[in-house]
Amino acid sequence: MSHGPCDKCEELLQGYLDRELTEPERVEAELHLDGCEYCRRRYRFEETLRVYVRTTAEERMPPGLLEKLTQLRSPAP
Amino acid sequence: MGEPEPDIEARRIASSARDRVRFEEEALALADQVYRVARRLVGSREEAEDLVQETYARAFRSWSSYTPGTNLRAWLLRILTNLNLDRGRKIQRTPDVQPLEEGDYYLANRMAESQGELALDQDKVVERLSQDSIVTALSSLPHDFRDVVVLVDIGEFSYADAAQILDIPIGTVMSRLHRGRRLLKQQLAEEALS
């Protein structure tokens, strides 16, 4: 059961969001988005969510780790 | 025939040492990005630190099997995900995945149902999600799905790189990504609406 009218678009949307579509597929996705309010809103939602996940879940390397990694280097010949 | 001439041999050794130093420096320059992915693949900061250290220890030992000019970050992540898999198989069990009945827009649909159409305003929906809820939701994903979601969404790897890192077909990357993101949204919806 799908709540959206566009199963085909769901498939295209993932590749479109990840910039993984071939050129003809990308054109097809954009044409569809131009004409479909439902998918356009979904697309904006998904894109925002994805950026949010990426930025929120990011955590910088703890201080000291780089130093520990540097010590793993092989000794100079 | 016979032994190589001493100065040729000395030059070969010096050149190899330079290659190794360059490799180590390039690898260390990627440490922050490698850690960022590691941190979301495992449950704790300590585990992530251990995993990154093991990865670099192994990378430095086997540096000569890296082909210069290829994607070093992907090469390091391949070591890391293999090490993580070895650990995971020992201590973690993949939970059963419940099939989802809704489409790809689980979170948006649930939000819309609970709040009316306004909820589809992405800022309003996203505002309701805390940093903790994203992190918790990611860590609750079964490993196979989490690996792909983290590599593509946090590590910003292409499908092809993710496929190579995890040694699975691209089609599997795509389906796990789709499924993993749906599970993520389901988790987030449950949290945001609870």
CATH-defined fold name of the largest domain in chain B: Arc Repressor Mutant, subunit A
What's the CATH architecture of the largest domain in chain B?
Answer: Orthogonal Bundle
How many strand elements of chain B? 0
| Counted beta strands of chain A | 0
Domain module count of chain A: 1
Q: Can you tell me the residue ranges of chain A where pLDDT is under 50 for at least 5 consecutive residues?
A: none
Largest interface: A-B, 39 and 48 residues
Biggest beta sheet attributes of chain A: none
User: Helix count of chain A, per DSSP?
Assistant: 4
Distance between the termini of chain A: 65 Å
What is the string of SSEs of chain B from the N terminus onward?
Answer: HHHHHHHHHH
Into how many domains do the coordinates of chain B divide? 2
Q: Could you estimate the helical fraction of the residues of chain A in percent?
A: 55-70%
* Count of discrete alpha- or pi-helical segments spanning 4 or more residues of chain B: 10
Order of helices and strands of chain A: HHHH
Rg of chain B, please?
Answer: 22 Å
